[in-house]
């Protein structure tokens, strides 16, 4: 049995009620439990204790970030959570930026203490998939992982490695929740398999 932490960044904001991200969190919990994993969930908007969250990262074998995209990136509550928890985790989830004066081979970003742990982004976006894959559309064909590059690097800084990103597209103008849920279950099965 592996241990998986789900960080849910759903929030009522603007026209969003946060329902889809809450639903996907429940789907992940159900699917992962059925696969034999131990699951903990933090819903950021319900509040959190920084030391307890650091402990959850130390406990977890993998972290799933369930979040909407706001203004081309993770929502501010996710950024605040990461700032709080990663900074509070100094000495437990990272020791330094990795560089030392005595060993020039150690490079920036090599001081994480979370080696062997993985993370997965599950993101909901109103943009259609073509906006990410078509070079003539908004994201110039660069794909979701390039758009999320800084968030990837934050997790890699503490030593974790990425699992394939999952994305729901067109969630406001042309939602397909049942199809998205089926795809997400399959994505989780592929990422975390049966124990």
TrEMBL record:
Keyword field: FAD, Flavoprotein
Family matches, as SUPFAM superfamilies: Flavoproteins
Pfam family, any one: Flavodoxin_2
UniProt entry tagged with the keyword Flavoprotein: yes
Top-level taxonomic group: Bacteria
Domain Flavodoxin-like fold: 2-188
Cofactor: FAD
InterPro entries xrefs: Flavodoxin_fold, Flavoprotein-like_sf, NADPH-QR_MdaB
Family label: Belongs to the oxidoreductase MdaB family.
Protein name as annotated: NAD(P)H-dependent oxidoreductase
Organism of derivation: Oxalobacter aliiformigenes
